[in-house]
Amino acid sequence: MRRRGKIWLVVLAVGIVASLVLVPPIVHLVKTAYRDRSVVERLPAGYTDDVSRSNKTQIAEIWDMPSDPQKGEDELRQLLRRAQASHLHVSISGARHSMGGQTIYPGGIAINMLPFKGMNLDEDKNLLHVQAGAKWADVIPYLDQHGRSVAVMQSDNSFTVGGSLSVNCHGWQYDRPPIASTVESFHLMKADGSVIACSRTQNRELFSLALGGYGLFGVILDADLQVVPNERLRLEQCVVPLGGAMVSFARSLHKHPSAELVYGRLNIAPQKMFDEVLVNVFYEESGPIPHLTAAGSHWLPRLVFRGSAGSTYGKEMRWSAETKIQPELAGKVFSRNQLMNDNAEWYLGHSQDTTDILHEYFVPRDHAGEFLAAARTIIRKHNEDLLNVTVRDVRTDHDTFLNYATQDMLAFVMFFSQPRTPDGDAEMQTMTQDLVGGVLQAGGRYYLPYRLHPTEAQFLRAYPQANEFFNLKRRYDPQELFQNEFYRKYGGDR
Question: How many CA atoms are closer than 13 Å to the CA of 232, on its beta-carbon side?
Answer without folding.
Answer: 8
